[in-house]
Specification:
By secondary structure, the chain is mostly helical. The chain has helices at residues 3-21, 27-44, 47-69, 74-88, 92-108, 111-134, 139-146, 150-160, 170-180.
């Protein structure tokens, strides 16, 4: 793992822990933190950044549900702490195993929540995939990194309008075309 990625992930995990432990539970801040990690993922195209972005986004959806339904999620907090400790100690195998374990823990919090969590995880992967693509990563590579089909990703991206071209007047188009061939 590159040092710059490691340092950013340590920072992000630390911030996520603070947010989750706070009584206010700033869900929007967790989502923004997830978007921050996408920047690294778009530059380095590494699985660690992508998995953390998806995980934090999933937590931003699952934890408020747990609060509402009075479901205990302390195991997620302790696992996040364990991942933070492992990456800080350069134990990347333990770090990755803990992150993988967290995805499974999210699914097991409550049987009723299981279907919801899978949907959240799928949506998180697709949403984060669209952000990666908006940062310039091809749909094929983004789909490969996140384990999605290109079709799933294209369907979502097409609805977002990230790349909608604004129509410009004919005279302006001609002027722009002429300038390009000078």
């Amino acid at each position: 793992m590159r040092d710059v990625i490691k340092e950013d992930l340590i920072s992000v995990l630390g911030q996520a822990l603070e947010m989750i432990k706070s009584k206010e539970l700033p869900v929007q801040d967790l989502k923004e933190l997830s978007n921050h990690v996408i920047h690294d993922a778009s530059i380095f195209q590494d699985d660690d950044s992508v998995s953390i972005a998806v995980l934090i986004y999933a937590l931003s959806n699952v934890i408020p549900y747990c609060e509402e339904q009075r479901i205990k999620y302390g195991v997620l907090v302790s696992s996040l702490q364990k991942a933070y400790t492992a990456i800080t100690a350069n134990d990347y195998a333990k770090y990755r195993a803990t992150i993988k374990q967290m995805f499974n823990q999210i699914k097991k919090i409550d049987e009723k929540l299981k279907i919801y969590v899978q949907e959240v995880l799928d949506r998180a992967r697709i949403k984060k995939g669209s952000k990666l693509h908006a940062h310039g990563i091809s749909i094929a590579r983004t789909a490969e990194i996140l384990g999605l089909t290109q079709w799933e990703l294209q369907n979502y991206i097409g609805k977002q309008g990230y790349f909608d071209i604004k129509e410009m007047p004919v005279r302006q188009r001609l002027k722009t075309a002429r300038e390009a061939f000078k």
